[in-house]
Amino acid sequence: MAAIADLSDAPNQWEFSCDLEVDFESEENASIVYAALGVDKELQPDKVKRQMSISDGKLSVHFEAVEARFLRASFSAFVDVLTLASKTIEELGPGMVL
Amino acid sequence: MKKKMIAIGFEGSANKIGIGVVTLDGTILSNPRHTYITPPGQGFLPRETAQHHLQHVLPLVKSALKTAEITPDEIDCICYTKGPGMGAPLQVSAIVVRVLSLLWKKPIVAVNHCVAHIEMGRIVTGADDPVVLYVSGGNTQVIAYSEGRYRIFGETIDIAVGNCLDRFARVLTLSNDPSPGYNIEQLAKKGEKFIDLPYVVKGMDVSFSGILSYIEATAEEKLKNNECTPADLCYSLQETLFAMLVEITERAMAHCDSKDVLIVGGVGCNERLQEMMRIMCSERGGRLFATDDRYCIDNGAMIAYTGLLAFAHGYSTPLEESTFTQRFRTDEVHAIWREKQESGDLSGLPDGGI
């Protein structure tokens, strides 16, 4: 699993943005994480936006916010649940050892 | 015919994370939990509590499966607490449950935390249709079942009774291990002098925040002047709060023409509260049903059992709707499993599963 986070200056609707890409090297695992994390919407849609997509076993997430602190909070919370979802697959998925 | 239906349940709405495995007849196959205990004088905050749950949830799932001696294949549904509770801690269970539902290809059942306390209390004690006093760190409600829903007859208009006790424990810097309420209860046993405190019952409702402010403001002064001991304050606070709860419970009993009372929720394991309620019940010719800390305090089995009741009656939650919510009132839930029982479609719950 590899993650890349960068503050790109591509044209955005809101000033602050950031992208995250995680390579699960598995179509199935990427789609499980995508489906599980897609259920929870951003709590302040007027301040932070999150867009997710999957392709080729990779999960890509694009964040945009009106202020840096909202971007940080949203990104940080997302990484926590992303890690939880990934660990759940690793520990309780096929081949689980009790 | 399939053997007994089995559910796994996830509870993480407050400072406990618990996973339980149960069957439809209420047999608990496993019910491990872990509590986030803060230093004396401090309460638990959403972010830190969620971090605690993140660390413990997966080992608890493994431990629950191992103790129950089951594999994921044998599970019929995966249940979780949808609310009410703190947002960030609730999310931990919700995320794991969604992933497991996809991994193990099992349906999800969202459960109301308050209803789960009631159903757990009913199955453990055998109380059929009692007036329920639900008292915990986050909730204080007097509830009775009527026409498909658990109706709230009375409740706190500000903070929960457990929150009042917990916050007073912080004033005295009592330990939060195993819980602040337990340590107040032990100290209260040594109290000798009753200190007058405000008594705030408003119709069917109660209010605790003013009592807390009053005792917080006067405690320091009284202790400094040796007017009373910390034990006296704990004793007086318990007597006052519990008398209020007994009063509104008795009024609900008169409304519903019911003689039995069931106490559930974390504060429900307080033996002094149980004793006071038992006296009131016996004066009315009724019975008190209560449980100990294994079932009173938040646990995964109560979520699993309540979710399984709903699932056995055809209810499940699509993945896209498996959200969590901080506010989720007891009377929002349609208790389908109780309706069918009453209309005689099922003569009790079947032993062998449906």
**Helical amount among residues of chain B, as a percent range?**
40-55%
Multimeric status of the protein: heterodimer
Number of strands of chain A: 4
What is the CATH superfamily classification of chain A? Alpha-D-phosphohexomutase, C-terminal domain
Reading side by side through the largest sheet of chain A, how are the strands ordered? 1-2-4-3
Q: List the total number of helices of chain A.
A: 2
| Number of structural units classed as domains of chain A | 1
Q: What is the approximate shape of chain B?
A: globular
Keywords:
heterodimer; A: 98 residues; alpha+beta; TATA-Binding Protein; 4-stranded antiparallel β-sheet; 2 helices; B: 354 residues; alpha/beta; Nucleotidyltransferase, domain 5; 2 domains; 5-stranded mixed β-sheet; globular; disordered C terminus; KAE1/TsaD (chain B); metal-binding (chain B); nucleus (chain B)
What would your notes on this structure say?
The complex is a heterodimer of chains A (98) and B (354). Chain A has helices spanning 27-38, 68-92; strands at 3-6, 16-23, 48-55, 58-65. Chain A is an alpha+beta fold and 98 residues long. Chain A has a single domain (3-92), classed as TATA-Binding Protein. The longest helix of chain A has 25 residues, at 68-92. Chain A is elongated. The model of chain A has no long low-confidence stretch (mean pLDDT 90). With 354 residues, chain B is an alpha/beta fold. Chain B has two domains: 6-118 and 296-343, ATPase, nucleotide binding domain (Nucleotidyltransferase, domain 5); 128-286, Nucleotidyltransferase, domain 5. Chain B is 44% helix and 18% strand. Chain B has eleven helices and 13 strands. In chain B, helix 1 (46-68) runs parallel beside helix 2 (87-104) and helix 3 packs across helix 10 (300-312). The model of chain B is unreliable at 344-354 (pLDDT under 50). The interface between A and B is medium-sized, with 22 and 27 residues. Chain B: Residues 33-305 form the Gcp-like domain. Chain B: Belongs to the KAE1 / TsaD family. Chain B: Keywords: Acyltransferase, Cytoplasm, Metal-binding, Nucleus, Transferase, tRNA processing. Chain B: It is found in: Cytoplasm; Nucleus.
